[in-house]
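Entry 14. Structure prediction run on the chain below.
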Amino acid sequence: MKISVILAHPNKESFNHAIARAVLQALEANRHQVFFHDLYQEKFDAILPAAEIARDAPLPDDIAIHCREIAAADGIIIIHPNWWGQPPAILKGWVDRVIRPGVAYEFLEGDSGEGVPHGLLKAKTVLVFNTSNTAAAREVEVFGDPLETLWKNCIFGLCGVRQFHRRMFGIVVVSSEEQRKKWLAEAEEMVNNIFV
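Output returned:
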C-alpha cells in the first residue's frame, strides 16, 4: 500500500516526532510505500496565495508533489499536537493548499459550488494521532472534541475517505517514560492492524 504520513510539530524532541518514528517503523516493517513529510523540517509554506485557489491553477512544484502523493495514497496518517482545539497553523495551511479541488474533492456538474463536495481521494482509511495536555473527558465534555469533527467530518469525510481512526495521547506533559513507551507500542499496533 501507498501511505502518506504528515507530521506537524516544530520540536524534533517532541512526542509527536516519537510517534512519527514508530509509525514509519511499522509501515516499513510491513513493506508499505511511504510518502513522509515533516512540514516544519521542510519549511512548508502554509500561506495559500489567491492565484492557487482555482481548480486548474498552476501549482508550485512542491505543492504539486504533495497533491500527487495524497491523490495516490491508499491510506493517510496525520500526526500533530492539539493546540487550542486545532492543528498547528502549518498543518491547516497544508490542508488549504493540498486538500484542493480536483485532487481531494469536486463539485458535481450543475453545482456551482454551493453544494456538498464529491470526494476524490483514493485512500480508504485515515488515521490521526494527536497529543494533548487536556484530559480526554474534558476535551469531549467542555470543547466537543473539535479535532474529531475537523478531521472526520469537515475534511476527510467530504473527500471520500470512509474509514476514520483517531487516537489522542494525553496528558503528555505529566506522562512518564513508561507511559509514553506504552503509547508508542499502541501507535505501532494501530498502524499494523489498520494498514494490512
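The first strand starts at residue 2 and ends at 7.
Filed with the rest of this week's runs.
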